[in-house]
């Protein structure tokens, strides 16, 4: 099924939306939804850098359009209360601050993280008052709806394409799942599916395993840090990635036999590979990944070390693989390879598993 933007909405179909976050996705989602006829507010730390309309260059459909914005503000009281749907388009490390800021202004909205990996549901449950939670819906997607890049901050954005396949959402409360999924399908005019649990969001085997296993393999050879993250991928990283992925799927099958995790494909199936060598060859061959550099810093002429302040470390370890480990620990299920990778990566960037639990996910702390 081809993905094409729908026709502009009638007044009866227009939805009042607030987008929290001013990154690439925030820009593009704002421009796209406004183009479809929805009323769009922006909550951002830098409202003064935004114009009252966005210029969108839609490369997918070969068109350009100007998208008016209703309000742009750094004050949630100005943009949240009037909105029916609140879209959270920020990195996982910012979830806590943003949810804390908007929580006092929530009433009956639908709150959606795009995407929601990194414990969005845990953070919402912890911060949003219980009486408010009874009247709102919380949802999260596995992936982002659009592929894009900001041209000029607050002014223009390039829409390069849409998510491959269907958008997949987890929803709470569960009895509103189909309703909210349809609401988001209508909002974005993109194919959408309901998935059965937020575990299908938090335990994704994408960056949480892909980045962390690659970095662990590099940590074993600190004097041989390669220039390119994917183009220089090696079999050691592939073997570790496969092992972690197999552990993860065994965890799914044994701890949650009644939940379908079909939305999370095994790594070898996803990359159409059969073993570590073929996986390495496949990852190295993906054109869109060729130029992505390894997060490293030059410590002497032509001598490099891994950059432990990179988001590859500060996001994918504490908010990714460590969250998977904490969930496994909560269910008293052993995942030794995942644990080995997690603890090494956390130590490298100055964290511990106890700190992740106590500071980021207290509901999962022992």
Task: Give structural notes.
- Helix content is about 40%, strand content about 20%.
- It has 15 helices and 14 strands.
- Helix 8 (about 205-220) packs across helix 9.
- The termini are far apart.
- The relative contact order is 0.10.
Quick structural overview:
With 366 residues, the protein is of the alpha/beta class.
List keywords for this structure.
single chain, 366 residues, alpha/beta, eight-stranded mixed β-sheet, four-stranded mixed β-sheet, 15 helices
Low-confidence stretches are none
The major sheet is characterized as: 8 strands, mixed
The quaternary state of the protein chains shown equals single chain
Strand content: 15-25%
Helix content: 25-40%
Query: In angstroms, what separates the terminal alpha carbons?
Result: 46 Å
The counted number of beta strands is 14
Continuous helix count: 15
Succession of helices and strands = EHEEEEHEHEHHEEEEHEHHHHHEEHHHH
Order of strands in the sheet with the most strands? 5-2-1-6-7-8-11-12
Backbone CA Rg: 21 Å
Question: What is the averaged pLDDT score?
Answer: 95
Classification by helices and strands: alpha/beta
**What general form does the structure show?**
globular
